[in-house]
Amino acid sequence: MSFSLFLAFFAAAVVLSFERLTYIYVWRRPRAFASRCRRWRLAADPVAGLERLFYLFKVIQILVFAAWIFMFSAGQWPQLAAWPFLSGGIVLILVGQMLNLMTFWRLGRVGIFYGVRFGHEVAWCRQFPFSVFRNPQYLGTVLSIWGLFIAVRFEQPDWLLIPLLQTLYYALGAHFEKDSPRQPGAYVQAEVRATG
To answer: Residue 84, preceding bond cis, omega within 30 degrees?
Structure first.
C-alpha cells in the first residue's frame, strides 16, 4: 500500500467512523443525546435531531466516496468495471436500496431514528425484511457500498478498502446497538414528555 493510499484510507476511516460512533452513542446514551439536542438546538425532539444527523452523515459518506473514487481515478471520470461486474454492482445497489426503503417503510420515521430509545412506542416488526434479516437497513447500506465500488473501482488496487471498512463499521455498529437486560428500550419517555 502506497503512503498516499494509506493516508487517504486513514482519513476516510476517521471521517466515516463518526456516523457509527454517533449511532452507538445515541443507542446507549439516549438521555444524554436528548439533552444535547436541546442544548445545541439541534432539535427539540431527539428523533428529529437524529434524523438531521442521519442526512448530514449521508452527505459526508457520499462526499468521502466521491473523493475516493475521483482521487484514485487520477482526477478523471472513473472507468466502469467490465459488464459482468458492472451489472453485479448495479444489482447489489438495487437490492441494498430496496432493503433500505423497505426498512423505512416498515418502521417509519420514529422507528428508524431510534424513537423507542426516546420513549416512543414502536411496534416490533416481524414482516419482511425483518423476517429474514436482523438489521436490513445496515445490510442494505453495505450491499449498496459494495455494489458502488464493484461498479466503479473493481480490479483497481484500492477497490476493497472502503467496502471492507464500511462492512466492519456497520457490523460493529449492529453489535454495539444490541439491547441488554440492563438497557430496556425506552429510556427517556418522561423527559421527552416533560420538555416536549
So the answer is: no
- Each residue's pLDDT tens digit, 172-186: 999 998 864 344 444
Q: How many CA atoms lie within 13 A of 182 on its CB side?
A: 2
The one-letter amino acid at 78: P
Q: Are 134 and 144 in contact (CB under 8 A)?
A: no
CA proximity to 150, closest of 163, 137, 134, 167? 163
User: What number of H helices and E strands is found in the chain?
Assistant: 7, 0
pTM recorded for the entire structure: 0.86
Higher pLDDT, 5 or 166: 166
Amino acid identity at 87: S
Closest CA to 72 of 14, 147, 143, 1: 1
Distance CA 40, CA 57 (A): 17
Count CB-CB contacts under 10 A for residue 37: 23
Q: Any idea where the domains of the chain sit in the sequence?
A: 3-195
- Do the Cβ atoms of 21 and 170 come closer than 8 Å? no
- Cα 160 from chain centroid (whole Å): 18
Beta-carbon contacts of 148 under 8 Å, excluding residues fewer than 6 positions away, are 65, 89, 93
